[in-house]
Fold this sequence. Notes:
This protein is α+β, with helices and mostly antiparallel strands. The protein has 1 helix and 8 strands.
Amino acid sequence: xxxxxxxxxxxxxxxxxxxxxxxxxxxxxxxxxxxxxxxxxxxxxxxxxxxxxxxxxxxxxxxxxxxxxxxxxxxxxxxxxxxxxxxxxxxxxxxxxxxxxxxxxxxxxxxxxxxxxxxxxxxxxxxxxxxxxxxxxxxxxxxxxxxxxxxxxxxxxxxxxxxxxxxxxxxxxxxxxxxxxxxxxxxxxxxxxxxxxxxxxxxxxxxxxxxxxxxxxxxxxxxxxxxxxxxxxxxxxxxxx
Length: 241
């Protein structure tokens, strides 16, 4: 390291040795002072540089942690969203199967009526009341329709579950079964010979425009996350073998 130099030019007229000694001492003091300041400046500069490097490293660490946390939060959000979507899909799949089952129950009753050569729509109507719920009789192993319920709020429209099997019942609380959020109601409107559809409260004219089929609508309603969902399956069944 080079030391800064400071020279003092003494006047040629000064001949006193004490004065010359004084100036030499002062020159040495000034020389040392400048050297100390030079050393101090370098030390301060190095310390500032070290602090700057430390601050830069802390900033890089903070940014890296922010990127990592953002990625983790995004992954968790995506996982939760996928789980929610999977649950909604499973619930909708159950509702679709229940609605389709309602159609198949009506078809099964119609097909069973053909065997003894009885009325093809026996058990599929109750005067001009066309709303019903399907009931399964375990003892007789047959399906029947109950025309008591007129809307999805009726207690017979509720679906119960026992051993993984969904069913409807006329009982207030079937033993051993758990109540689900699903409800089901069948709408069986008459189809006349001219292909017109007659709703509840009226009938086809047996002489002029007889009944040839049934427009079956199977509506399923369920609750999920505070929202009400509904799904409807529809099919037309005729007196054709």
